[in-house]
Amino acid sequence: MSTTPTRVFAARLVGLPIFDPQGDQVGKVRDLVVSLRGATRAPRVLGLVGEVFGRRRIFVPMTRVTHVDSGQVYTTGLLNMRRFEQRPTETLVVGQMFDRTVTIRSSRVTGTVFDVAMEQARNRDWVLSRVALQEPAKGLRRRGQTHVAEWDDVDGFATKEETQGATHFLAALNEMKPADAANVIRDLPRDRRSQVVAALDDERLADVLEELPEEDQVEILAHLEAERAADVLEEMSPDDAADLIADLPPDVAAALLELMEPEEREDVRRLMEYGEETAGGMMTPEPVILPPDATVAEALAHVRREELPTSLAAQVYVCRPPLETPTGRLLGLAHIQRLLREPPSTLVAGMLDKETTYIKADASLQDVAVHLAFYNLTAAPVVDDEGRLLGAVTVDDLLDHLLPDGWRDRKTGSW
């Protein structure tokens, strides 16, 4: 590898773009794969885990890597696009080494691993050479002292650790979008995945679950205590929670519903009354709903909420009281693009879209797709026979239902 630094730390590699010889980005680095070779012999770096089109994770052998620096990784371009599957003799650096408890033999200092460095040996192989660890916090310190030691002076990697933490691995996950984090967690060994899931907070776990295939959602939820499973379901969007609960055994689903807070439980139960392949089954009951006397300033304040999905922030719905779904009669919807051009004190009710029609809860996926395409919408209101707003169906939820099973593992485009 020409002009490559002599030492590269793993945490700095994660997230770096991977380029082919023509300078086109083909993916991102997500982890390193190594082969452990005894207690003191430095592990050999076999390659990188790269994330390519459609969030597919592939193996990039180190023999295909031509250059590594602080900003990018270059390869020969000859990459196998087959999905990465970890072998029993392989170890993931970020996924399995981070947060292990190890001891520096010479000083007897014990701490948890937060990074490792690799270097190129004389035979041109890359090996792990340094270990960065952090001692537990002492006294009033928020963080413990950090140390960097030679690999052959560290004990603790050769034995299996039953209670491995996840603090530093979670720090890496939190830098990723939920969909990317979900893909990383999905590919972890079963034991390590359980440890990471246990360490995630409920809100982050809910975000990750929404991005996983149904079988992975069910498996993860099955390993949680019932009370925590109910808390995580409450943090999920009601439509995703309803879909997940519908995939559970009836007795488990009933028990979890009873443990949920009444308000969230009612939203989920109402969605479960509709067919999964209908507008009612995939709508969210929590769009931005305003009264007739709301101003542009109030509308913009609502859509600025960080937790509001982009598809729902594109428009607001003006209804008669009550303003919780199912609302009073829907008076109309207003597009944020229009509101941005009006004085803040202007009433939203004076700028309602008079042309867009509404969707009934029993509308099919095809009907919803045609409706969104015809009116160029990212979301559309769903109403009952009395014209009351039941919720909104978004284009991202529609795509989740229209795409074939296993679409997350397929090539869906370029970077």
From TrEMBL:
CDD domains: CBS_pair_Mg_transporter. InterPro entries: CBS_dom, CBS_dom_sf, Mg_transptr_MgtE_intracell_dom, MgtE_N_sf, MgtE_transporter, PRC-brl_dom, PRC_barrel-like_sf, SH3_actinomycetes. Keywords: CBS domain. Signal peptide: none annotated. Residues 283-350, 351-410 form the CBS domain. The keyword Lipid biosynthesis does not apply. It comes from the Bacteria. The keyword Nucleotide-binding does not apply. Pfam families: CBS, MgtE_N, PRC, SH3_actinomycetes. This is CBS domain-containing protein. The lineage of its organism: Bacteria, Bacillati, Actinomycetota, Actinomycetes, Propionibacteriales.
